Amino acid sequence: MNKTLLVLSISTILFHGAAFAGSPGDEGVPIASSVETTEDDADDFDARAFYLAAGGGVAFENFGVKALDFHPRTYQVLDLVSGMFNLRAGYDIHRWIAAEILWEYYTGWDFFAEGGRPRMTELSGWTLTANAKIILWRSRLQPFVLIGAGLGRLGHDSDIESCERSGSGPIACRTSDHDSDEGFVSRYGLGLDAHFTENWRVGIEAAYIWSLAELEGLDWATTGLVLAYSFR
After folding, report:
1. What pLDDT, on the 0 to 100 scale, is given for residue 160?
2. What is the pLDDT of residue 18?
């Protein structure tokens, strides 16, 4: 009797042990499976790939008074915010680093300038920067920081009639006034990319543009959304 119970007990233990090891729904198997799934999921976004992206948003001016040398001494900012859109091309050169070229256009900040002759003025322009994008975590959600440098161009258009006399000749008038400056700019940003397929992702990004040379003092901040496609 005791031998029979012993055999039955051993058989029961062996049966349950085999079921535990072999059943796909049991607890021990999904641990390795989960690790493999996580690694596979991350690997989908690790491959070196060329990508194209487009985005849009807003830019907030942070201009210094001395930088606005094409304005009279006093002015009133009517519109602190400009529209913004950008295009970029990049390449994931490493698991944690991407290099990209970014062109960004600013539709314009509006001013009412006083002193001499009052006028309405719009300041608009673009930047072209080479950026290094440092990815902090590789998964479907990828936080990143970005640093870059390049060229910027800002110009102003005034809707006034400017009249001048040339010597003893007649007074010549023009209905618009335009001037522009170019200079060095640097870009510092951070953001988050969300992959919804292996190739497509959408991101949110905020950046600060710091200007030097002819554009010194004309700084601004941007925030917006980016849609990108990777050629994997």
Report:
1. 52
2. 44
Amino acid identity for residue 160 in this structure: I
Q: Convert the pLDDT of each residue in 140-199 to its tens digit.
A: 899 999 999 999 998 876 655 455 555 565 555 454 556 678 899 999 999 999 999 989
Is residue 209 classed exposed, middle or buried when 0-12, 13-18 and 19+ CB atoms within 10 A define those classes? buried
Model confidence pLDDT, tens digit, residues 31-62: 444 444 444 455 566 668 899 999 999 999 88
- Residue for token digits 């710091």? 210
pLDDT band at 213 (very low <50, low <70, confident <90, very high): confident
3-state SS track over the chain: CHHHHHHHHHHHHHHHHHHHHHCCCCCHHHHHHHHHHHHHHHHCCCCCCEEEEEEEEEEEEEECHHHCCCCCCEEEECCCEEEEEEEEEEEECCCCEEEEEEEEEEEEEEEEEECCCCEEEEEEEEEEEEEEEEECCCCCEEEEEEEEEEEEEEEEEECCCEEEECCCCCEEEECCEEEEEEEEEEEEEEEEEEECCCCEEEEEEEEEEEECHHHCCEEEEEEEEEEEEEEC
Residue with tokens 């007990």, as numbered in its chain: 9
Q: What percent of the chain shows pLDDT beyond 70?
A: 59
* Inter-CA distances, 148 with 14, 99, 190, 193, Å: 63, 10, 12, 18
